[in-house]
Amino acid sequence: MILVEIYSKADCHLCDVAKDELKRIQQQHPFELKIISIEQDDALLQKYKERIPVIHINGTFAFQYRVREQEFINKLHELSNSPLSPR
Residue 50 is part of which domain span? Predict the structure, then answer.
């Protein structure tokens, strides 16, 4: 299954919007969603600070600040059809 990670923190409006968008998309296009709080890790906090939300797909950077729905879905389809992707 494709892994989508969102790096976020509490009281972040853009993070909340991105999480809601990902959860909505997830209903039609299944993937594993992992929400990572940068506040729990000093290294992540220093790395991302005000750049959040940051979204990675299968460990690769995909989006920052906003999720562009059609581009996100296209990336999911590309990965799910890739011969290297786990099924």
Answer: 3-64
